Amino acid sequence: LTNLQPFTDRTPQRLNFSLEVAEETLNRSAEVLQTITPINNKVQQWAHNMRNNEYSTAAYANAVVSAKEAVKNLNELVPELLNKLKVVEDKKPVSNVTTNIMRIRELIAQARSVAKKVQVSMKFTGQSSVEVHPPSNLEELKTLTSISLFMRVDPDKDPIEDRFILYLGDRNGKKDYMGLAIKNDKLVFVYNLGREDVEIPLSSKPVSQWPAVFNYIKIERSGRHGKVYLTIPSQSTTDEQKFIQKGEAPSTDSLFDVDPNNVVFFIGGVPPDVKLPPPLSLAHFVGCIELASLNNDVISLYNFKETHGLNVAVSPPCPRYKLAFSQSRIASYLFDGTGYALIRNIERRAKFGQVIRFDISLRTIANNCAIFLMVSEGNFFLLEIKNGFLCLTYDFGFSDGPKFLENNSSKFQINDAKYHEVSVMYHQLKKVILLVDKSLVKNVENPKTPLPFSDIYIGGAPSSILKSRPELSSVAGLKGCVKGFLFQKRDFNLLEEPGTIGISSGCPEESVMSREAYFNGESYLGSPAKISPFDNFEGGLNFKTLLPSGLLFYHTEGSDEFSIALENGAVVLNNRGTKVKLQKKQYNDGRTHFLLASVNKQRYLLLVDDKDKQEKKRPSAATKSSSDSLVKTFYYGGSPSSSLKNFTGCISYAYIN
After folding, report:
1. Which of 32, 320, 569, 656 is buried deepest, with most CB atoms within 10 A?
2. CA 520 to CA 538: how far, in whole Å?
C-alpha cells in the first residue's frame, strides 16, 4: 500500500476515500503482523525446550502470556481490519490496492493458523477452564461432527470422580449440543439433537484403569448415531488397546443445529455465566488435555478466546510423547493447504554435487497441489501434482522456454490417499530423472546448468512468490501429509525450520479423507461393501443440485432394486417397487439439503432437513431372503445399469448404519 501513487479517475472522491481507508487498513495490518512474532518465536523456543527435556516453567508462562495477548489482540484487531478491507473492496479500488488487500488477508490467516496448530497440552486443576474459538462454518458440523483429543489422568494421584471434559453448544445449555464427561468411572459421550439427551458410556475400560499417559479419544456423530473411541498406547511395544462404543438417538432428528451467535466451545469446565445441560453439570476436569481435531481441521487449546483460573506457574502442561501411537511412529507433517515449510540455505546439511537428489514421501487426495518449489530471481524449479499426476517444471532462462517432466499413465497417479515415495535426481551433466515408488516416471536431457538455488519451499509458498511468475500463479498448497523430506539423503525436521508456518505434526486419517464429491451427470461412485438395504437400512447424505432429476443412491440384487432419487424436484425412495415420495418441496434449488432414509420390518421412512417427513407401512409380502452369492455393489450419484438419470451436483457427508 505504501507504493500507491496519486491517480485520476472519473470518480476521484470515491477513490480518494478508498485510499484513506486503505491507509488506515495498512496501519491495522501492521499491528496484526506484530502479533504474529511473539506467538511464533515463543512457540518455537518452547517446542525446543520440550524436545530437549529442558522444560522451563518461566518459558512456558511467557509463551502462554504472549500467545494469549497476541490472540486477544487478533480478536480485537481482525474484525475491525476485515470491515475496513470490505469497505475498500466494495469501492472497487485499483489493482494494486486489491493486491495488497489479498496480502493482508493472507497474513491474518497465517496469524490465526499459528494459534490453531500449537500442539501442547494444558493442565486443568479442577478450577480452570478454557474457551476455544468455535468453528467458523457451523454448517459443516450439521450432518457429521467429530472431535478428537489427547487426555491424561492419573488415578493414583487424583482419584477418579464424575467430571466435565468438554462442551460444544449453546451458551445457555439449551437446544443441540455435544459433550464429553467422566461419569461412574466411565468415559461418556453425550449429545442432544433437539429432543432428548443421548449418553454413550464406554464401559469396556473404566477410567480408573487407564495408565497415567496421554490416551487418544475421539467422539463422532453421524446423523443421529454416535460413537466414542479410546486408544491406549503401549509404552514399550507397538501394541495398542482400542475400544469403541456405539449409540443412537431414539428419534429421527439427525442434524446438529446451533446458533452461531450463542455457540461456545469449552474445555475442562465453564465459568459461572455459562449454563451446562444437566448431563454435563459436573465438577471441573483434573488432568491434562491436548486438542487434536474438529472434523477435518487441526485445533488447539491455544486458539482460545478466554482462559479461566489457569495458573501456568502452579500447573505446567504435561509433555506428550508425539510418537507414542502406531500411526505416528514415524515423524510426519500435516499440511492443510494454507501453510508451507521453508528450508533456507539447504546446503548447510549437504552440498550440491554433480548429482543432486531430493526425496519426499507424501499422501494426498488433492488433484492439484505443490510438492516443493525453488525460486531465485527469474529461475524456478517446481514439483507439483497436476490432475493427480506428478509434474516437474523448471526454467533457468532457457531460450526454448521451461522444461517439463510428466507422465499421465494411470499407474503413476498418486492422489489416492496412500503414501508414495517421490524422487528427483538432477544430474548436472546428464539427465533430470523423476521417480515415484522407485519407478521411472520421466527423464530428460539436462541442458548442463547448475541449480541456482539456496532455499526450498515444501507444500506451498507465499502468494508473493507464486505470483512472481505466470507459471506459478495457479499453484495450490498441499492438502495432505509428508512423512519425510531428504536432500542428498539428509533428512530435515520441517517443524524446526524457522521459515515454516501453518503445518503441524502427525497425519490423522481425516486429513486424507474426502467427505464431498461432485457428480457431472455421467459419473458415479461404487462400493462392494456388504449392505442389506431392502430389509434393514438407515443412511444419510447431503445433496445440492439445480437439476430436477438424478439418482442419489442405488443398489441392486438380481432383479430387485433399491434407489433414492430426485424425480421432478421431489425425493423418492424405491424399495422393490414400493415408493415413498416427498412432495412438500422442490429440492433442486441449489441449496444443501440433508436426506435420511430408513427401512425396517415395520415401515419405510424418508426425511429431508429434519422437517419434510413421509412414512409408509411396509407390505407384509415385501420381506424375502437374498442370495449371498450375488455381487452387491452400491452406488452414489448414479449407476452403470439404472434407468434413472445420473445425478448432477454435490453429495457430501454420506453414511450408512
Report:
1. 32
2. 26
CA of residue 522 relative to chain centroid, distance: 29
Across 234-347, where does the E strand assignment appear?
Answer: 240-248, 263-267, 286-294, 297-298, 304-308, 333-343
pLDDT of residue 2: 35
**Left if phi > 0, otherwise alpha if psi is -120 to 50, otherwise beta: which for 526?**
beta
C-alpha 198/C-alpha 188 separation (Å) is 10
Residue type, 374: M
Tally Cβ neighbours within 10 Å of residue 158.
14
* Rounded CA separation 159/155 (Å): 5
Q: Helix, strand or coil for residue 169? A: strand
Q: What is the DSSP letter of 226?
A: E
Instruction: Look over the chain and give the mean of its residue pLDDT values, rounded to a whole number.
Output: 83
DSSP 347-393: GGTS---SEEEEEEEEEE--SSEEEEEEEETTEEEEEEEETTEEEEE
Q: How far apart are CA 584 and CA 382, in angstroms?
A: 53
Strand bridging mode 525-527 / 578-582: unpaired
User: In one letter, which amino acid is 73?
Assistant: N
Three-state DSSP at 302 gives coil
| Residue 36, pLDDT above cutoff 80 | no
With cut-offs at 50, 70 and 90, classify the pLDDT of residue 41: low
pLDDT of residue 21 exceeding 80, the answer is: no
Quote the distance between the C-alpha of residue 297 and its chain's center. Answer: 3
> How many CB atoms neighbour CB 96 within 10 A?
14
CA dihedral (560, 565, 570, 573) positive or negative: positive
pTM (two decimals): 0.75
Q: What per-residue confidence (pLDDT) applies to 512?
A: 81
H-run or E-run covering 258: none
What order of strands is seen across the sheet that includes strand 634-636?
Answer: 525-527, 634-636, 550-557, 560-567, 570-575, 578-582
Integer Cα distance of 581 and 616 in angstroms? 10
Cα separation, 399 vs 61, in Å, equals 57
What's the grid cell of residue 128? 480452570
Q: Do residues 366 and 532 touch, judged by C-beta distance below 8 A?
A: no
Contact 441, 412 (CB under 8 A): yes
Q: How far apart are CA 269 and CA 160, in angstroms?
A: 16
Based on the number of CB atoms within 10 Å of its own CB, is 578 exposed (0-12), middle (13-18) or buried (19 or more)? middle
CA atoms within 13 A on the CB side of 395: 12
Q: Is the pLDDT of residue 9 over 50?
A: no
The residues near 201 (Cβ < 8 Å, ≥ 6 apart) are 183, 184, 186, 187, 188, 245
**At residue 7, does pLDDT exceed 50?**
no
> 436 pLDDT band (50/70/90 cuts)?
very high
β pairing state of 525-527 and 144-152: unpaired
Distance CA 290, CA 299 (A): 9
Residue 109 to residue 642: CA distance in whole angstroms? 46
Mean pLDDT of 322-328: 59
